[in-house]
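Notes from hallway chat w/ T.B., transcribed later so I don't forget. T.B. wanted the structure written out for a chain they're using in a teaching module, and asked if we could keep both sequence and C-alpha cells in one place. Agreed to drop them here.
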Amino acid sequence: MGFFNLLAGQNIIDVAVDGIPANLGRIGYVIKWIFDLFSGMPGAIALGAIVFTLALKTLVLPLDIFSRVKMKKQSLLMGSMREDMEKLQKQYANDKNMYNQKVMELQRANGYNPLGACLPTLVSLIIFMVVFSSFSQYSQYANLNSYNQMAIKYSLAVQEYVLTSDGDENDNSLFLIAAVETAENGLNNPVPKTDLLRAKDGDGNYIGGFTKLNGEPEEIYGYYVDYAKFGEYYAGLSGVEELPPNWPSLSEVEKNAFVKDYVRIGARQAAADYYHEHSAETSFPAANWWIGNVWYPDSMLNKEVPSFSGFRSAISRAAGSIDANYEESYNEVTYNLQEEKNTYNGYFVLIVLAIGLMFLQQFIMMRSQKAANELSTVDGQAATTNKVMMVMMPIIFGFFSFMYSAAFSIYMIVNTIYSLISTLIINKVVSVRFDDNLEKQALNKAAGRAGRKRLK
C-alpha cells in the first residue's frame, strides 16, 4: 500500500506512553551527583545514601562537636553542684519560683549556661530539615526518573518499526508511519521519511516519540500502518503464529488491534528489561534478596512496583499533582512487571533498626545529662520530660522510615550511628579533661592551704 493511499483511510494506531516531567531542587542535584558516582554498581543507591550521610555529617561535625562538648561540660558542672542543688531542692520544695531563682544564682557563680549548646543544635536541626526535604524530593525524583527511562525504552522499541530518513522504503520491517498534529492545520497527518528525535532522559528533555517537522519537534500522536509491509514482515518471522487466514479481509480496526498487540509485546519487554537491568542498583543489601526497591519503604505494605495510585503518591513532590490520565501509560509500561507488583518491598527491618538505634541514642544522651535532668527542676519534672522524649523520638523516626523510602531509612540509620559514636567519644574526652581540671583545682587549693599554714 502506497503512502499517499493511507491519507484516505483512518487506520491510525496509538501505542505511545506518556513521560512525566520531573522537578529537582538545587540540593537535589548535589545528592544526584553523589548517587551517580555509584551508578552501575550493585547496591548503588544504598552506597550513595551511606556516602551522602557520612559526607554531610562530617561537614557539620564542628557544630556537633561544639554542641556536644558544651552539653557534656554543662552536665558535668551540674553534677559538681549536685550537693548544693539537692539542698536547694529540699529547702524550696514548695516554692518553685524561689528555687529557680536560687538555682540561676548558683549556676552563674559556677559558670553554668544552659543555653550554651542551643545555637549549634538549632543550626544542625535546620540542616537536617533541609536535607530531609531535599532527600525526600530526590527519592521521588529517582522513582519518577526510573519510570521515565522505562517509558523511553518502550517508545524506542515502538520506533524500531517506524519509517525514517535512515530507513529504506523497501524494508518490510518498517511498517509504521508517524502521525503528528501540525500547527498549521491541527490534523493528524502521516510524516514519511522523517528524523525521529530519540528521547533522552527525565530532566526536561523530550520523552517518548517526537519527530522534526519544519525544523521543530512535534509530538507523535500515533502511527499509520502499511498493512502490506506488515504482512510481509510478519510472514518472515520465525516462532510466531501465522497471520489470521482472513487477514486481507479484516477491517482496519481488527488489523490495527492485531498490529498494536504485536508492537506492544516488544515494547513492554523493553521497559521490563530496563527495570531488571537496573534492579541490582536499587536492591538492598543485595540483588533479589531483602529490599527490591530502596526508593520505596522497607515494608510489607509496599510492593516492589506499586499500583498507579501508589506510584502517584510516591512521586507527588517530584512531579506535582498528576491526574489519572497517566494511569493507562503507567500500566502499559509496567505490564511485564506483574511479579514485582505482587512482591513485598521489605519486611520492616530498616524501620525497626531506625527505631532501636534512635532509642539507644536517646538513652545514652539521657544518661549523660542525668544530673541536669534530675536537678534543673525542683520536682524532677525535667527527668520525666526527657523520658517522654526518649520514647517520642524513636516513634518519630519510625514514622519517617515507614512513610518515606528505604534509602531515607538508611540515611537516618547511618546518621544515628555516626552521632552515637561521636557522642561517646566526645563525652569520654570531655569527662577525662573535666576530671583532670577538677584534680588540678583540688591540688591548687591544697597547695594554697599548705602555704597559708606555713606563713602562720
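Follow-up for T.B.: The CA atoms of residues 215 and 323 lie 32 Å apart. Might be a good example for the class.
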